[in-house]
Amino acid sequence: MLADSVDGGRSWTNLRPVWRYVGGASVLGFGEAHGHLVQVSDGRVVLVHEKRYPPADFDVRARVSNDDGQTWGGEIYHLSDGAGYGASVVLADDTIVTVCGNTPLRKDGRPVTEGSWSAHAIRWRLPPATSSKR
């Protein structure tokens, strides 16, 4: 779910799903969670989140909004295979750096090799916007 705040996060309004069209169904499926948002200089908002089920197909992915998070495009950017919560920052040149786990999991949700937890950093950029609200 997303919400808006105009007071630095003390209160929230307009609670809504991550939808493709206003009032539509959520574009996130079962187990797509733990997201965070960043914004690039042309105004596009990026949602980086996990797909957690089935565990053997766990990955970290991103989606883009051209209207301040009101609606979300259908394209999914695949950032990493494996388990791991992510965090991202946007650099001055609009390069996005996402740090996340990338440990492959078995069907039961345990690491493929016990004790093999790992993480990595991904430097990536969105393709140029075809049209922007800003």
How would you summarize what this structure contains?
The chain has 134 residues and is mostly beta strands. The protein has strands at 2-4, 13-16, 32-39, 45-51, 59-65, 77-81, 87-90, 96-101, 119-124. It has no helices and nine strands.
Can you offer a commentary on this structure?
The chain has 134 residues and is mainly beta. The protein has no helices and nine strands. The protein has one domain. The strands form three sheets. It has a four-stranded antiparallel β-sheet with strand order 3-4-5-6, with no helix packed on it. It has a three-stranded antiparallel β-sheet with strand order 7-8-9, with no helix packed on it. A two-stranded antiparallel sheet has the order 1-2. β3 (32-39) and β4 form a beta hairpin. The chain is globular, with a radius of gyration of 16 Å.
How far apart are the termini?
A: 24 Å
Based on CA atoms alone, the radius of gyration comes out at 16 Å
Largest sheet: 4 strands, antiparallel
Total number of strands: 9
Average pLDDT reading: 87
Strand composition percent: 35-45%
Could you give the order of the helices and strands?
EEEEEEEEE
Number of helices: 0
Principal-axis shape equals globular
Residue stretches low in confidence (pLDDT < 50, at least 5 long) are none
Number of domains: 1
Structural category is mainly beta
> Fraction of residues in helices?
under 10%
Spatial strand arrangement across the major sheet: 3-4-5-6
